[in-house]
Specification:
alpha/beta; Lyase, Ornithine Decarboxylase, Chain A, domain 1; 298 residues; TIM Barrel
């Protein structure tokens, strides 16, 4: 991957470890700009699997190790240290950890007059009615205020607001295939599940849902998938109005990560992706077929 990045002319490569320095010095034939990923030792209030800036994180280098890496890079005749990268986690609904991360990387000392400080991403979004996500203005104000307080005046800031850009741009449509009653909550099984949305299983992410023809309210239900796993539950205790076999059920805010971690578990075929704009719809990723699943078999 590093060879591909260098071959493609990547402007800047983020170094995660000392081994990356070894690899790049063997690959690079001309000057290559790099950033060092630093562990800021900041705890973020998010799911354990999405926290990335705490002490002991598998990502990046501790501040003392980052100082050593910076000294080595300054001595390199092929790699040019442009600054640092930091990321404290994903789906953060509080801006305070972002400010603490900026303060932490300031302890690295002077990195140059126009050093780059890539402050990562992590701004959370509103998945449920109870979520209170910071606005983009609040997020940016937190970062810039912290930068003015702790970083050089001419520092260049980069942010990576991935989830907050795309999560709300998409929804997933399921077809109800079975409805079971006579239990604590009605169970509504759909023609998808953990093959197209692993976030509830991996990260405990809560979503909302509605029957498209009867929006809002209804009886408490468990929305479950088609896979041979008891853990294949998309949403527990979600209100659905008179769900019935054949209903279309919409789960909003699935534009981030659902597609990127979709899979073929149990031989499931991944669904299509359809873009809609101004009353027009077009398929941009076709539905998978059984032939697709068997294509690599010998």
């Amino acid at each position: 991957e590093l060879a591909m990045a260098v071959g493609a002319g990547a402007g800047t490569i983020v170094i995660d470890n000392f081994d990356d320095i070894d690899r790049l010095e063997k690959i690079v034939t001309d000057e290559q700009r790099v950033l060092i990923r630093v562990i800021p030792d900041v705890e973020a209030d998010t799911h354990e699997a999405m926290a990335t800036g705490h002490a002991g994180s598998k990502f990046g280098l501790s501040v003392p190790d980052a100082v050593r890496a910076a000294a080595r890079l300054r001595a390199s005749d092929r790699l040019r240290l442009d600054g640092v990268h930091v990321h404290v986690g994903s789906q953060l609904l509080d801006t305070a950890p972002f400010a603490r991360a900026v303060e932490a990387i300031a302890s690295l000392g002077e990195l140059g007059e126009h050093a780059v400080y890539d402050l990562g991403g992590g701004l959370g979004v509103r998945y449920t009615y109870t979520d209170q996500a910071p606005t983009v203005d609040e997020y940016v104000r937190t970062l810039t205020d912290a930068a003015r307080a702790h970083l050089p005046a001419n520092a260049r800031l980069i942010i990576e607001p991935g989830r907050s850009l795309v999560a709300e741009s998409a929804l997933t449509l399921y077809r109800a295939v079975t409805v079971k009653r006579g239990r604590p909550r009605a169970l509504v099984a759909v023609d998808g599940g953990m093959g197209d949305n692993l976030e509830p299983m991996l990260y405990g992410q809560r979503f909302e849902a509605t029957v498209t023809s009867r929006v809002g309210g209804g009886e408490p239900c468990d929305l479950v998938g088609r896979h041979c796993e008891s853990g294949d539950t998309l949403i527990r205790d979600v209100p659905l109005r008179a769900p019935a076999v054949g209903d279309l059920i919409a789960v909003p805010v699935t534009g981030a990560y659902c597609y990127s971690i979709s899979n073929n578990y149990n031989g499931a075929r991944r669904p299509p992706v359809v873009f809609c704009h101004d009353g027009e719809a077009r398929a941009v990723v076709r539905r998978e077929t059984y032939e697709d699943l068997l294509r690599r078999d010998q």
